[in-house]
Amino acid sequence: MLRVTELRLPLDHADGDLRAAVLARLDLPDDELIGYAVFRRAYDARRTSAITLTYTVDIEVADEAALLARRAGDRKLSPAPDTTYRFVARAARPPRLRPVVIGTGPCGLFAGLLLAQMGFRPLILDRGKAVRERTKDTWGLWRRSVLDPESNVQFGEGGAGTFSDGKLHSQISDPRHHGRKVLTEFVKAGAPPEILYVSKPHIGTFRLVTMVEQLRDTIEGLGGEYRFQSKVEDIDIAETQAGERRVRGVVLAGGEYIAADHVVLAVGHSARDTFAMLHARGVHVEAKPFSIGLRIEHPQSLIDRCRFGDHAGHKLLGAADYKLVHHAANGRAVYSFCMCPGGTVVAAASEPGRVVTNGMSQYSRNERNANAGIVVGISPADYPGHPLAGIAFQRHWEERAFAAGGGTYAAPGQRVGDFLAGRPSVALGAVVPSYRPGVHPTDLSTCLPDYAVAAIREALPAFDRQIKGFAMDDAVLTGVETRTSSPIRIRRDEAFQSVNTRGLYPAGEGAGYAGGILSAGVDGVRVAEAVALSMVEAPQGG
Ligand code: FAD
Fold first, then answer.
1. Which ligand 1 atom is the nearest neighbour of the CA of 170?
2. Looking at the record's lineage, which domain of life comes first (predicted)?
């Protein structure tokens, strides 16, 4: 298989045009092209009057070597890399002690799936409920203002990304094509096959729910076991004669002890009680940078028009997204985060008395509003003194938001015009906010540190110069956006184990090793490989 890159065609090209473009590019007679498959399709909308599609195509020809020789020096033709996933180990027999995976978010799911596929029969624990029951509890907050601290947008089967836009792009370095493995398994579990080739794939929340159920069936069919409502509340660490700290087991809420010598910790960025427990047990934890800010909503039609001009609404383009960055005069970077075209802003709190925003959408992305976090980078210098100080910082601003929203889990909100003018909103305008259970017009400057407010006030007009109307008076801001990534890192070594606790594998977003669904899934694959190799080598694992 050979790969041809950068084939440009007009947006509305006919079916046969791609084959013709391959033949023309390679100066190839028609009968020499046996077949082709689109590896990647992206669009270039820099000129809205002439939007083009850019293809990367894998081709089959009768004589690859001859074609490569003929086109020596053509940097847009090369052998296609082999992206087939190959397992690194296989359990010769069921392990005496099962590997334990804590968390069923994308990281824990893929760690569990890979371990199951390699024959290690993992035990997978989650503090929350199975996804259907969890969905009801999550709606409980959105519809009735009732928060279940163990079953919500952050906790339960599928993890934080289940009620999301399901965007699947990532910029991680992935030399072993683990991302391809994750996407392939997602498609087997029911994701739309196009996620394998479109440049900005997304799944939408509705399908994600059925996909995580399907992945559970697969894992259980391979001998893995799931246990929901099984919060890991403590971890048993012993010191060996050689002075090494080693995991011996985990303790569930309720007191049940589970012996384990390989524990994957994929608890996500909101498991604050678990982070505190790990720190108290001496596991190396350090503060790391993250971002805080607000969520903004505009009419999706405004974004579509600006990005796609007359092509707005074209079926291959879908609802338009954006990515914006501004470097503010006070030294802070402001950027758009987790942009959800045609989606809704969601209540994403997991602790009582706190308000957190995030965004989600359905596959169709056909809701009226576009939303995105507009967030400001912060670092441990802003919350100095303790490895867990970032959590206290998040809680402080989430409590402010709860109070400013009226103490009912309504989000505090403000018109952009009022926010920029420094006056509280008393009513909202033409853009109707989508956050449920509701939005309370107020002054959002009480919900963020002054430097973040100043940086966002400077960024919005700058963004308006890129997307005309971005700073429109009636665009709505809600807050606060605090769960952009983990406030801590649980440092691990090259064997993927905690730097001071053997057998503990910190993984995914919560441990500071992923940001988003795809990278969390990829980290799950990598950690599963490390666990499998260790279990194959270790006598107790085999
Ligand atoms: P998580 O998904 O957070 O999973 C952690 C799991 O661990 C949870 O199920 C939790 O219940 C469980 N757990 C925690 N503590 C314990 C314990 N002590 N014992 C047992 N179980 C425990 N990313 C994207 O790439 N694209 C998007 O479109 C997108 N949209 C998002 C929308 C929303 C509303 C949210 C909240 C997030 C979104 N994200 C998105 C981010 C993405 O969801 C996360 O990056 C990803 O889920 C992280 O995966 P993870 O497996 O590391 O952790």
1. 25
2. Bacteria
